[in-house]
Design goal:
By secondary structure, this protein is mostly helical. The chain contains 10 helices and 3 strands, in the order H-E-H-H-E-E-H-H-H-H-H-H-H.
Length: about 240
């Protein structure tokens, strides 16, 4: 049953990170339980998990809703990220181990593959993961906690307000950061990081995505597609 719960979580998170659901749309437990064929209790657990990752908003006595981050919040969040992540990469340019650099290199290959496949949700998730890998490489728990908070908040900003074709820009900008790290150029890495985050912020535009109000319809299509793909894989 844990496997099915993870599959439901994956479908919901993909819909959210793809910007397929309208900001503020309600996520009704009863409707979701019918879509996914699981109990309301299990749906509640999944929604709490999504809320912890800031992909949805949990409002006491009202329920769960698709997160509705405002562009007005973006400036403060990206300011914080520029300050923190500029320092992270400047530090890692002199202290990153070979394993961290190998992991980053492999990760960027996955980013490029998702881009080539036109997989918007995976591109958004992998873009966030790039920054979390850098945070993990510092070995500092406090930095990692701060990054988890900031990256969670910006993932939905990107999903809602960044045009899908912008993923190519993000991949190229990540490679610039990585190149500076390989050279041990802390100043260059910090400049590349701050530039990348500023460019992401400028690419956020109202109406960039085309979310649907039909939550049930979107999730039914995605769930059916996921189950069909799984059945095909199992039959091979």
């Amino acid at each position: 049953m844990k496997e099915r719960e993870d599959a439901v979580y994956d479908t919901l998170s993909r819909a959210l990170l793809a910007g397929a659901l309208a900001p503020g749309a309600p996520l009704r437990e009863t409707a979701l339980a019918e879509v996914f064929g699981v109990s309301r209790e299990r749906i509640r657990k999944i929604l709490l998990r999504l809320g912890t990752n800031r992909l949805i908003e949990m409002i006491p006595n009202r329920g769960a809703f698709v997160a509705a981050p405002s562009l007005e919040q973006a400036r403060s969040i990206y300011d914080a990220r520029r300050i923190l992540e500029g320092g992270i990469v400047a530090h890692l340019a002199q202290n990153a181990g070979a394993e961290a650099l190998r992991r980053l290199g492999e990760h960027m290959e996955r980013e490029q593959a998702a881009l080539a496949e036109g997989d918007r949700a995976t591109s958004v998730r992998l873009s966030a993961d790039f920054h979390m890998i850098l945070a993990e490489a510092t070995g500092n728990t406090f930095i990692l906690q701060q990054m988890q908070e900031l990256v969670s908040r910006t993932s939905m900003l990107v999903a809602m307000y960044e045009a899908p074709h912008s993923a190519q820009c993000a991949c190229d900008e990540h490679r610039d950061i990585f190149t500076s790290l390989l050279k041990g150029d802390g100043g260059g890495a910090a400049r590349a990081m701050r530039s990348h985050l500023s460019l992401v912020e400028t690419r956020l535009r109202p109406g960039a995505a085309a979310p649907s109000q039909d939550v049930v319809g979107v999730l039914l299509r995605m769930w059916s597609g996921q189950r069909a793909a799984q059945s095909t894989d199992e039959g091979r």
